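Standup notes, structure subgroup. Blocker cleared on the PBG input:
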Amino acid sequence: MSRYPETRLRRLRQSAPLRALVRETSLEPRQLVLPMFVREGLTEAAPIGSMPGVAQHSLDSLRRAATDAADAGVGGVMLFGVPEVRDAVGSGADDPDGILNVATAAIATEVGDALVVQTDLCLDEFTDHGHCGVLDARGAVDNDATLDRYRSMALAQAAAGSQLLGLSGMMDGQVAALRDALDAAGFQDTLLLAYSAKYASAFYGPFREAVDSQLRGDRRTYQMDAGNRREGVREALFDVNEGADIVMVKPAMAFLDVLREVRDAVDVPVWAYQVSGEYAMIEAAAANGWIDRRAAVLESLLSIRRAGADAVLTYWAVEAARWLAGR
Ligand code: PBG
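Run returned:
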């Protein structure tokens, strides 16, 4: 029987313990990954205006913040490097003395046993034109020449101690290329997280400030068109076929339908990235007193988990982990 009055759906909602008992989706600190920015040449952390509460770190402040993240029980940290000098091919990216690789080594030593140390594998922070790859004679992003740069980056990051590489560049064939390069060099255990369905999104706006992006124009020749859902699933299946250990949908909240479809289509873990613009919107509304900050943050994360994410990259990872632990 499933009609009123024999059946009363509100019966399941009458007390907090009952609601907790029947809640379908959980949110736990271990399912959160904190993206972190480390900037070459800083002696102390510098705030990012469009992301209140998020900073560009110095090596020292990064170490402290990574330790805080481990203490809060988050599952991992994802490192982004901001170099002092950029060039056309992003030489700082695969230089063992480049800021991202130096920071990775420091963090791996400090917290590598307590959480999963992860690195962004993309050229955009390191190129003087701000694109995610190298350019051909016509100024277009050259897919296959970029793969050569990515292979070199992957080896440098793995050698520095990164346990999981976040492939965010949206080049075709990047997963297979990096799996081959890593295996040939003895890095069989280094994991590959494919940013499979990464959309060309307006919600990356604040991130461009966070990494001092040099980009003019957009990334629409390699990142996905926001209108495409089937193609997001296709990208994820391709990446699994190429050997991705984990696939990702990004941004999160504007693409929850894609997230659900990808979760249903693949048999590897699926992650989502709650990006800078998603963070900034909630922070701005909360700063104005227009929404309850904590409730909105937790609801946003729960919605991403409910849509199918096994883990979520979020700038609130540490704070949310503390709330969830009741601290
Ligand atoms: C590119 C990259 C971007 C983000 C993560 N990796 C920016 C872009 O693709 O333009 C955005 C993350 C965010 O907005 O929080 N390496």
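Discussed briefly. The chain has one domain: 26-324.
Next: hand off to the docking folks.
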